Amino acid sequence: MYRLYIWFRARSVFSRRRPRSIVNRILWLFSVWGLFVYVLAIASIWWGSSKVIDDNFSRQAVDWVKKLDELGVPIYAADDPVLFKSISDHVSQFPELSYLRYYKAENNSVIAEYTSEKLGDHRIPYLSPTSLERLRLLVESEQPLFINTAASSLALIQVAAPIVIRSFTSDGLIGFDMEAPLVENYKIIGFIELGLDFSVYKKHLLNNILLGSLIVIVLFLITVFVGRIVIRRSLSPLINLRKPLAKLANGNTDIYVKSGGDEEIDAIARALNTTIKSLKSRDEKLRKLANYDSLTGLLNKHNFNIQLKHEINRVVRMKSSGAMLFIDLDQFKYVNDTLGHAAGDHLLIQISELLKMRIREGDIISRFGGDEFTIIARDVSKDDAEAIAASIIKKMQSFVFVENDKSFNIYCSIGVVMIESGQFSASEVFSQADMACFQAKSAGRNCYRVFDSVEQDEIRKSTDISWSKRISDSIEHDGFVMSYQPVIASQDTGIEFYEVLVRMRLDDGSSVLPSAFLPAAERLGLTDEIDYWVIRNAIRKMAECNLSERRVSLAINLSNSIFEAKDFSGKVNRYIKQYDVDPSLLYFEINEQSVLRQIDRAGLCIKELVDLGCHFTLEDFGSALGSYNYLKQLPIDMIKIDGDYIENMVSDPVDQAVVSSMIKIAKTLNKKTMVEYVEDAATLEMVKSFGVDFVQGYYFGEPRLNIDSMEYSKAVSKLHSNIVHL
User: How far is residue 250's CA from residue 248's CA, in Å, rounded to a whole number?
Assistant: First the structure.
């Protein structure tokens, strides 16, 4: 049984590796069927011919009996065997007559006999008394008796018959009644036996059949050869589909399938072209989703980051210069809150059209997110960049947004940073533009500022004091705001999972991103206090959800210096007990820098919290060579793959291979995996195929100030749907 299984497996593998050609399959079926018909025809011809020949030979045997019966009567009448000489001379001229015998009726003895030389030493037995008695009974039937007394090695037709003299009985010539029935009398005077050998004719027939068979085989082979040519020519349009189908299987949709002359093949070609057209349309939609903002049609954050990297490389390669402008609308939140999100969308569309009119051909503009826009101006000097920023400020000052009979003056703040070398990475250039924009806002808004590194250092020193007070006040008076971005599990656990993001609320009601205050907090040593504020309030939020019977799991980002803090694990334990939450619902996200500061202490703190039931995620996994080493050493539950590998993964085979390998390695180490920056359906489908455990990104929802179960349910259904959402 096992050998049979192996044989079937081997045959299955062989069949998969070497698919058969449809032409060869048709020829094979045609050949097998032709061979079957050929064998059947030859067998039928042979059987039919043999049957006809045997019947014919039997009739000839009967004719020979009648003829030799008449010739042999004089032998009995004269009782002179010498008369047989003329008969034997006559029959010797016929090669098929092997022997001839005449028997006396009185004593059953042979009175005359002829034997052909062909018989050689073969002796044919004489008729037995039983056979002769049977012949006597055949007088009235007038049919000879076919017998078989010859040796088995001879193919003879042996036949015997009685020799009869017949007469009519009469009462004389006088008074003879013509109408009276005649009475026939007969007398058996002897018996005749002869043997006929038709093997010569049969051999000749066999030779003719064999010759005909060879001719048929030759014609059949010629037909197969010609048929192969005809079939290949007929199926050539279908065979020609292999190359475009192979390209289509490899993801290449830049093909067109030529239609053939046959109706069926033409239908296949048209169906393939329709499929390719649909795939092109889908790919184009996916490409737009991956690279363009669906509302304004501008480049999105993902694609802008790629273009910024390209611009930095171009500046270095061409020894040129460029500039990046970071634009933040000043009154967008007021419009959005007053008139609603639809009005906010209308405003963003109009602003995008305005900005497109202010840039030059070759420059790049994007909607970076929310009410933020970015521009890459190529081949410009600092004066040129300032002129572009000033023209945008001026145009915005004259712009009036009208919605529902209400009008609004919309202004903006712009940060400008020059790109003059490869000294700074794309993220650093963006941070500089963001800081310059923040300076413009701090200067009263409705203006632009150019980033200056020297000036920035001085500003940083002078502003650290004000940041210190702001951060301290926010910690003491709950001046921070937490938002929650959904994290969706590939296998539904029934638990809502969110990442906690923190912002600082300013006096005017706006909020500041962590990138604005965390650097100052790190320099001032206040990051630990921020961490504790976030942990305490996140755990309290979990407790609030517990009161409404909702199981909510939260992921909290920890700063790089948290493991240097005194009694970190003890404080977390006290928060958990204070609010009575399940520690297994608590995830802490750490990066390599926080571990490297104090590897031994970090490992001890992580172990203490893991023993308590908490979980740890190593974020930005793969950004450094030591990631795999830390993954093996530390009791980490999950890895969060570096977003740089995810942003351009759909179009980058290298990123695909890296992400797939990371997930496989994590599974080997029994770790869960999470990916962020899932911004479109194509990226989602790809990471799902890799077997990722958790996904996160704007495709499922932006960070919200409140935990919304309905929105989370929509995000879950979006993940588990088999349809690619376009």
Answer: 5
